[in-house]
C-alpha cells in the first residue's frame, strides 16, 4: 500500500465504484450525440425545435403549463424565488438551513436578488408543518427540497407534504419544489412526478443527478411564471445562444434512466442494510427513501481514510472519494446509486464490507486501549 | 416566386449565404468532438485540466494574469462591472447607448446588480476621449466595445484608445473591454490581442462570433479580479458542474479560425465595395475595419424584402435573413464575414449584386413616379 495515496486517487483507481453512473468523462457527451443527425438546427436564444419540444415534454411530465430549460439549478431556483417575491412585494422566503441556496451558492440569492431567507427547522431534521405554522415572519415563498439531500436524502410523509401545501395555499404563500432529485423519490411515494408537483406552484428538476446528464435544469410552473423566468434567464446570462449540448444530453439520459429509479431505490435499501451491519457504521436514513443515503462512521476521518484505501486496493471496490467530518466527532460520505452498482460483483462487495467492518472494529479497539 | 415566402425562408434555402461560417447545427458540436478521446475527464465546477488549461492559454493570448471561462458574455460582463463598482464603492459605470448591456440583456445590470449606467456619446457615433473627459458624474468603470457592433462595427483610432486608457488610469476609472469581436479587429489595428488588452483592466471575449463556436466566453484580468469573478460566476448560476461542451468547441474553433481574421477582413472590404456600387445602398462603415459591416438601403423594408427574395431565388446567393428599419426611413442588415464567403461563386455573387442594384433602381423610380 502506497502511504501517500489519497482517498481520491485510490477511489479513481478502484474498478468498482458503488455509486453513480460511471466516470464523468467526454464519452457522456459523445454517446448522447452519436445518433443525432448533424443537420438538426441548433436552438437560438431559447427558440427552435430542440429546446421548445423538450420544454413542452418536461412541462407535461411535471403536470405544469410550461417549462423553461436552464443551464443550472442555481440560476433556476434564485429566479423562481425572485418571481414569487416580486409578485408578493416582499423579498423574504423560507427554506431549510442546509438548502442549496444557503450553503452552495455563495449567497447569490442575497447578493444578486437581496432576498432574505428565514431558516426553518434545524439542520438535523426535515421541515414540518408545525415549523411552517409557527413562522413568525411573513414570507412570499417556501422552498422544500425533496429529498433533503444534506441529511442523507430524507423525505416527509406524503400526507405532511399535502398539509404543508394546503396551509401555504391558504395563507397565500407560494410553494417551490427543489426537485433536483424528484424522479429518485417517486418509487418511495408511489406517485407520478405530476402528482407530487401538483402540491407546488413551481418546480425545478436537474438532469445530472439520478438522470446522469452533463448539466442542465428545468423550471416549470404556470405560463406567466415561465414567461417571467425567461426574462430573468436572460438577465442572469443564462439565455445562451445555444443550450443544445445540455438539452440533447439531458433528453438522452432522461430516456435511458427514467425507468430505472425503482431498481436504484431497491439497490440503495439493500446496500444501506449491508453498511448497517458493519461495526461503527450507520446510514442516514437507516432505511433509504430514494437512491441516496449517507454513510456515517463513529471514527474520525484520519482513522477511516487509510482503512478505506486499504479496502479499495484489496477488493477493487470504491466506496467514496472523500470523507467529511460529522457532528459526532466521526465522519461520513454520500452515496447515490445509479448504473454503476449493477456492475459491482456481489462477492467482492460483501468481502469489502466485511474487511471494512473488521478494520473498523480493530481501530475502535486500539483507540479504546490507548485512550 | 412564392409570394408568401418570408425573407428568412428564402435565406435558409439559398445555397450561398454571404456571411457567417455555415449553418448553426449539431454538426458544429460533432465536428469539434470527433477527435476528442472519450476517456478525457470532464471539468467539475471550474476544476480540471479541460477548463484550467484553456483558461491559462486564453489568459496568455490576452496578456492577462488569469482568465475564467463563462457560459455567456452577458454574465461575464455584468460581473466585471460589479467587481469594479464594488471595489470603488460606487455603483455607476459608463458605456455607449447601444452597448449590449443596455439593449440586449433585459436590464440585468440594473435589476440584478443595481448599477446605474451613464450613456456616453450618442447612438450614431463612437465614444471619444472628449466624451469621457466631459463626464459630469463619477464612475467606477468605463466599458468600451471594440468594434462598436450596433453602428456597423466602427473603431476609434488606436491613439484615441491609448489616450482614453491613459485618462482613465489617471482618474482611477477602470477600463473594461467588450471584446466579443476582439480577434476580428486585430488586422485593422495591426496589433496583437495582448497589445490591445494592455490598455484595459478587464477583457471579455466571445467564442461564437468570428470564432464560430457554440457558445461561451472568457473574462480576463489580474488574479484577484478573476478570483472574485469566479465567486460571482457561482452566484449567477454560471459555475455549471461541467462546461466542457462549450470549452472543447471554443478551443477547437479558436484553433481553426484564429489565423483567418485577415482574410475575413479583406473579404469584408471587398464585399462592402461591391455593395456600395449598388443603387441606393451604402455600407456602414463605408470601408470596414473588421470582418463586419452594415448594409443600409434608402428604400423601406417592405420594398426591399421582396426584391431580396427574388435575388436569392434567381441566383442562390443569400444576403440576410432579416431587415431592420433604420433612422432614415430605409432599412439595413448586418454582415459578418467568415468561412462561408469562400464558398460563394464570384460570378453569381456579382450577378446577384447587379440584379439587386437594378431592382432597387427600378423601385426608386416607381416610388418617385407615384409620389
Taken from the alpha-carbon principal axes, the silhouette of chain A is globular
| Helix and strand sequence of chain A | HEHHEHEHHEHEHEHHEEHHHEEHEEEH
Summed up, the domain count of chain A is: 2
- Can you tell me the CATH class of the largest domain in chain A? Alpha Beta
CATH superfamily of the largest domain in chain A: Type I PLP-dependent aspartate aminotransferase-like (Major domain)
Structural class of the helices, strands and pairings of chain A? Answer: alpha/beta
Distance between the termini of chain A: 27 Å
Question: Would you kindly provide a written description of the structure presented here, covering whatever features stand out?
Answer:
Two copies of one chain form a homodimer. The first copy, chain A, has 371 residues and is an alpha/beta fold. Chain A folds into two domains: 7-24 and 260-365, Aspartate Aminotransferase, domain 1; 43-241, Type I PLP-dependent aspartate aminotransferase-like (Major domain) (Aspartate Aminotransferase, domain 2), CATH 3.40.640.10. Helices cover 46% and strands 15% of the residues of chain A. Chain A has helices at residues 7-13, 27-33, 49-62, 73-88, 100-103, 108-113, 129-133, 158-171, 182-189, 193-197, 223-235, 244-257, 261-276, 301-315, 346-370; strands at 16-17, 66-70, 92-95, 116-119, 141-145, 174-179, 202-206, 217-221, 281-284, 292-297, 317-318, 324-325, 331-336. In chain A, α14 (301-315) runs antiparallel to α15 (346-370). Chains A and B meet through α2, α4, α6, α11 and α12 of A and α2, α4, α6, α11 and α12 of B.
Amino acid at each position: 500500500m502506497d502511504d501517500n495515496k489519497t482517498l481520491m486517487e485510490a477511489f479513481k483507481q478502484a474498478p468498482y465504484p458503488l455509486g453513480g453512473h460511471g466516470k464523468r468523462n467526454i464519452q457522456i457527451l459523445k454517446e448522447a450525440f452519436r445518433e443525432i443527425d448533424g443537420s438538426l438546427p441548433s436552438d437560438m436564444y431559447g427558440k427552435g425545435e430542440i429546446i421548445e419540444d423538450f420544454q413542452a415534454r418536461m412541462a407535461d411530465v411535471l403536470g405544469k403549463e410550461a417549462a423553461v430549460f436552464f443551464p443550472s439549478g442555481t440560476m433556476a431556483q434564485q429566479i423562481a424565488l425572485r418571481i414569487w417575491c416580486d409578485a408578493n412585494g416582499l423579498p423574504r422566503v423560507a427554506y431549510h438551513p442546509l438548502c442549496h441556496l444557503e450553503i452552495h451558492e455563495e449567497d447569490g440569492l442575497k447578493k444578486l436578488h437581496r432576498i432574505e431567507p428565514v431558516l426553518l427547522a434545524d439542520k438535523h431534521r426535515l421541515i414540518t408543518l408545525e415549523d411552517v405554522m409557527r413562522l413568525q415572519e411573513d414570507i412570499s415563498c417556501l422552498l422544500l427540497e425533496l429529498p433533503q439531500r444534506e441529511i442523507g436524502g430524507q423525505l416527509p410523509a406524503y400526507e405532511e407534504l399535502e398539509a404543508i401545501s394546503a396551509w401555504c395555499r391558504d395563507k397565500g404563500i407560494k410553494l417551490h419544489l427543489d426537485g433536483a432529485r424528484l424522479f429518485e423519490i417517486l418509487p418511495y411515494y408511489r406517485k407520478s412526478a405530476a402528482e407530487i408537483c401538483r402540491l407546488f406552484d413551481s418546480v425545478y428538476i436537474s438532469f445530472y443527478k439520478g438522470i446522469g446528464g452533463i448539466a442542465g435544469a428545468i423550471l416549470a410552473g404556470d405560463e406567466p411564471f415561465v414567461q417571467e423566468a425567461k426574462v430573468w434567464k436572460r438577465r442572469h446570462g443564462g439565455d445562451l445562444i445555444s443550450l443544445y449540448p445540455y438539452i440533447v444530453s439531458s433528453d438522452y439520459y432522461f430516456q435511458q434512466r427514467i425507468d430505472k429509479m425503482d431498481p436504484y431505490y431497491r439497490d440503495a435499501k439493500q446496500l444501506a442494510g449491508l453498511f448497517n451491519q458493519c461495526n461503527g457504521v450507520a446510514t442516514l436514513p437507516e432505511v433509504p427513501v430514494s437512491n441516496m443515503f449517507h454513510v456515517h462512521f463513529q471514527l474520525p476521518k484520519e482513522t477511516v481514510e487509510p482503512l478505506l484505501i486499504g479496502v479499495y486496493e484489496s477488493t477493487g471496490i470504491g466506496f467514496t472519494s472523500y470523507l467529511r467530518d460529522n457532528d459526532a466527532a466521526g465522519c461520513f460520505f454520500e452515496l447515490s446509486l445509479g448504473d454503476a452498482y449493477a456492475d459491482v460483483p456481489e462477492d467482492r462487495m460483501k468481502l469489502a464490507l466485511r474487511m471494512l467492518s473488521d478494520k473498523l472494529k480493530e481501530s475502535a479497539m486500539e483507540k479504546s486501549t490507548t485512550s
